[in-house]
Amino acid sequence: MTAVPTTPLVTPADIDAARDLLADVMHPTPMEFSQALSTLAGTQVHLKCENMGRAGSFKIRGAYNRMAGLTEEERARGVVAASAGNHAQGVALAAQLLGIEATVFMPNGASMPKLRATRGYGATVEQVGSTIDDCIERAREVEQETGAVFIPPFDHPAIVAGQGTCGLEILEQVPDVGTILVCLGGGGLLAGIATAVKAVRPDVKVIGVQAEEAAAWPDSLAAGHPVPVAKMTTMADGIAVGRPGDVPFDLVRDLVDGVETVGEDAIARAMLFLLERAKLVVEPAGAAAVAHLMNRSAEAGDEPAFDPDKPVVAVLSGGNIDTLLMLRIIRTGLGIAGRYLQFRVTVADRPGSLSGLLALLAQERANVLEVQHGRTTASLHVHQVQIGVTVETDGQEHSKRVVDCLTEHGYRPVLAD
Question: Catalytic annotation on 59?
């Protein structure tokens, strides 16, 4: 997948023009070297921190580029958009900067921080339905009713060109880059980066990464046209797109070297890794590229997963995450990494039973987080009690040592699912 499209809707010249337009709107986002990920991958790994850009994601690039091209008459009619969060904030900020009225439709259940941020940039926010499709349908209705211009999240040449400016920055910040990993939803960011990069460095591998539970691209590429996915159940709402965009599709098909998928556990593990080792807050969609990198590194064993002579850049597409969701993901990530061990044991209901159990856990240096007593389980005898314990460990090996120690001392720990 490296041939140049015969009639591309987006050209390198379009991306250069978008770069000039955005020069006074945003600075290039940081590029951070990660020693921890480099060790895992067997080559230098750099993180393109779109999560640290204006409005917390790459979306301002495309939204501003599209909206700056509106005529005065179109600007006077205002704009309308549909989004779960990142595109909403990008459109709202661009509208504020350009003096355009914006109405954004967001689904019921959208995170409060994203709702507040979108309103904070001056947009009118209305919540409709439970999915982005519901919001898009309503936005299109308002477009017909009022004449407001619909600003799509990815399916427009100016949007793709704006997102492509991220690719130009990558080439400037890591000139010898060998592989670029990009999260993939509708395809605007991946198509833009691939167009920008391949025009200058056709040897660079550009790989898209989707969430397994919202992976419309593999079937679409196999079919040769966009194919809707039947259902989506991913926490990565930023890339939970039911159908690839028509505009990005040809560019992705012709320029991108591969599309990979990652599971929910891998995304949670990557988010935790970025938080602990890179000190970066990244939303689930933004961690997809790192999740793939970590998966490949784990699968490769002693062999490097990427060319050791050519750096890898993983694009962190956004950092707009609800704090409560972050807490849940941290707990999930710790569990996946084996650092939360949950088990229950049945002991005699007499003084000293709990203290004996806790003494063993202290001996093994397992930090007790929670203890629960249960005396009403039908399987218990009258003089028995069930104790549920959650402990913090250093990882899978430490957890195994704890379980082995309890077993050796006569307990029969039943691990939680």
Answer: yes
